[in-house]
TrEMBL record:
It comes from the Bacteria. GO terms for biological process: alanyl-tRNA aminoacylation. Consists of three domains; the N-terminal catalytic domain, the editing domain and the C-terminal C-Ala domain. The editing domain removes incorrectly charged amino acids, while the C-Ala domain, along with tRNA(Ala), serves as a bridge to cooperatively bring together the editing and aminoacylation centers thus stimulating deacylation of misacylated tRNAs. Its cofactor is Zn(2+). It is found in: Cytoplasm. It catalyses: tRNA(Ala) + L-alanine + ATP = L-alanyl-tRNA(Ala) + AMP + diphosphate. GO terms for cellular component: cytosol. Residues 3-499 form the Alanyl-transfer RNA synthetases family profile domain. Its main location: cytoplasm. It comes from Deinococcus arboris. This is Alanine--tRNA ligase. Keywords: Aminoacyl-tRNA synthetase, ATP-binding, Coiled coil, Cytoplasm, Ligase, Metal-binding, Nucleotide-binding, Protein biosynthesis, RNA-binding, tRNA-binding, Zinc. One of its GO terms (molecular function) is tRNA binding.
């Protein structure tokens, strides 16, 4: 199919309008409540309606609402470039019922939208579902009413099939409930694993989660002193669904991943043009990180967030520096990322006019941050040059020195190695790893982050973060490269401010 991302978004909203839903514009990426810094799901602006508040929007009463909501998930930033399925910024297509329709309509409409030739026209044979362990109601709807064979349905516990994930145990307090998710089988090209394997692995490039249909019917309360979860019934049963637009576009357009879809492909092409580095597919992590992150920060800047050392701004800075680091890896030595902004505006500005309205500000903000970051890197290069020129050819740079460069200047060890090589000097990687691990242990001991990817980084935790804390190490480890640039520039400023 040749449906563009914009057409898929529009079709989704039209489909649910045809089912009696009120279409509302996306809310801001700035979270409407303090459980998170950024909006993480389409349902978040509607928590009060799920709790029983009147469903009236700008004077229009409607118990059925549909939106395409821009969301930012801090927990997925490091996934970009690592998995095929995560963006840091995503558009969540959602349909919501505030005490109106429930499971039957939610699941049958989802099926109709995905399979009807008039809408997405996907092959029904490729669709699979998961349900909450003992949700026989959902099982019966899937098998008896929709006709999904039982072997294409997997049952999971609250870790997977409750939203927010594991809410009974972990929170946050408020509306939550069991869910049923829809997966698309992308075929052997992506893996030889089977649907049955997914029950064990819960990770697959082949079976892609596209749609989460949540049945919020509980209001989570503070657990009892012994930790027992307390789920109170909500005044009525609700529906909250979320389908990632980027994911459904990838499936419908039958492309390998996000980076070949109609939104990202032009951005990746621009990165190729700017850097002169060809893009050959998933192995080219830097192109992908740059494209995704610039779309992401463009949107949050349009919504009024700016790079800074605390709270939301800290996250903006983190994303921008991660993009800058990858631009540097691509050989870009001048501010260049801001040149991708017009492409974001071109592809997304129709649905999100705030991008158009703020284009100049977005470009200037990104450019200024790139300049700051490049200076930080240059400081590290000078320091390293000083160290290396005092050493003999064939000597070894201590791991501690390499670590200090990283810690003070945010200077990635692979870059240190590359430059040291030019002097005929090697880096003691074992002792570097040791220094890093020591710091990680210290960081972990002092970490305020919870386990939940969505709600772990709350306002309080980020606001309370001192610029000298080692927040990036877990990311680094996960990524297998040293790139916790977060806070590096701030540490430098902190030091040079004489503290
Ligand atoms: P995953 O297991 O792949 O991380 P999730 O279970 O965390 O996804 P949900 O919280 O259920 O995702 O969100 C609803 C839908 O939003 C998902 O089914 C998916 O289509 C989409 N989605 C979630 N996270 C992302 C992301 N980082 N990038 C793109 N789409 C996403
Ligand atoms: Mg996730
Ligand atoms: Mg999931
Ligand atoms: Mg999910």
């Amino acid at each position: 199919s040749s449906l563009s991302t914009a057409q898929i978004r529009e079709k989704y909203l039209q489909f649910f309008e045809s089912k009696g839903h009120l279409r509302l514009p996306s809310y801001s990426t700035i979270a409407p409540d303090p459980t998170t810094l950024f909006t993480v799901a389409g349902m978040q602006p509607f928590k009060e309606q799920f709790m029983g508040a009147p469903a009236v929007f700008d004077g229009v009463a409607s118990k059925r609402v549909t939106t395409a909501q821009k969301c930012l998930r801090i927990g997925d930033i490091e996934n970009v470039g690592r998995t095929l399925r995560h963006c840091s910024l995503l558009e969540m297509l959602g349909n919501f019922s505030f005490g109106d329709y429930f499971k039957r309509e939610a699941l049958t409409w989802a099926w109709e939208f995905l399979t009807s030739p008039e809408w997405m026209g996907l092959d029904p044979e490729k669709l699979h579902a998961t349900i909450y362990q003992d949700d026989e109601e959902a099982f019966a709807i899937w098998t008896q009413e929709i006709g999904l064979p039982p072997e294409r349905i997997l049952r999971f516990d609250a870790d997977e099939n409750f939203w927010p994930a594991d809410a009974p145990k972990e929170g946050p307090n408020g509306p939550c409930g069991p869910c049923s998710e829809i997966f698309y089988d992308r075929g052997h090209k992506y893996g030889e694993d089977s649907w049955a394997d997914y029950a064990e692995t819960r990770e697959s490039a082949r079976f892609l989660e596209i749609w989460n249909c949540v049945f919020p019917q509980y209001d989570r309360q503070e657990p009892l002193p012994d930790g027992t979860p307390v789920l109170k019934d909500l005044p009525f049963k609700n529906i909250d669904t979320g389908m990632g637009l980027e994911r459904i576009a990838t499936v419908v357009q039958d492309v390998y991943d996000f980076y070949s879809n109609d939104v990202f492909a032009p951005m990746v092409a621009k990165v190729v043009e700017l850097s002169g580095q060809p893009y050959e597919g998933p192995q080219n992590v830097s192109h992908r990180v740059v494209a995704e992150h610039i779309r992401s920060v463009s949107m949050v800047i349009a919504d009024g967030s700016v790079p800074s050392n605390t709270g939301r701004g800290y996250v903006v800075r983190k994303i921008l520096r991660r993009a800058s680091r990858h631009a540097y890896l691509l050989g870009l030595r001048e501010p260049s990322l801001y040149k991708l902004v017009p492409l974001v505006v071109d592809k997304m500005g129709g649905a999100y006019p705030e991008l158009k309205d703020n284009q100049a500000k977005i470009e200037a903000t990104i450019r200024a941050e790139e300049e700051r970051f490049l200076k930080t890197l240059e400081g590290g290069i000078q320091r390293l040059g000083g160290l290396l020129s005092g050493m003999q050819k064939g000597a070894t740079l201590s791991g501690e020195d390499a670590f200090l460069l990283y810690d003070t200047y945010g200077f990635p060890v692979d870059l240190t190695k590359e430059i040291a090589e030019e002097y005929g000097i090697t880096v003691d990687e074992a002792s570097y790893a040791e220094s890093l691990e020591n710091a990680q242990n210290i960081a972990r001991a002092g970490s305020k982050y919870g386990k939940s990817e969505l709600f772990g980084a709350n306002q309080e935790a980020l606001d309370g973060l001192s610029p000298t804390q080692f927040v990036g190490y877990d990311d680094l480890q996960a990524e297998g490269e040293v790139m916790a640039l977060v806070g590096a520039g701030e540490r430098l400023e902190h030091l040079s401010a004489g503290s």
